[in-house]
Design goal:
alpha/beta, two-stranded antiparallel ribbon, globular
Amino acid sequence: MEKVAIFVDVQNIYYTTRQRYQRHFNYHAFWAQATANRTVVAAFAYAIDKGDSKQLGFQQILKTIGFEVKLKPFIQRSDGSAKGDWDVGITLDVVDYAPQVDVIILLSGDGDFDLLLNKVRTAHGVVAEVYGVSPLTAPSLIQASNRFIAIDGPLLL
């Protein structure tokens, strides 16, 4: 059986599915699809912690499915802008797990991850699967993957 590691950019998936479809991502359907006949070595969901009860419930759902939820505090800057970025954390974990698995599964449309996928594919011979919202996923990220799976119908609530 293939060994997989899953990395979910929760904010990216939330905002792209909402923008494109005005719907939420179906994590249960994703898990069933992505892990069928595979061994999950690690599964991380990277989120921003705003501390509200709705968010805590969502995080519990992710844990129940099988994800380890990693949280970063929400930072509101004095100029009104906000910061809550997991790119470096996701990158470090992908680099750590790539030697242990056959497949890296990344849920994000962020083109900043194209270099990462190219690197781990070359250095470790892993297959890179990217799940993203088609028109909102960077073309460079799609090109850096072995398989692009469009988030649409069955993967939406």
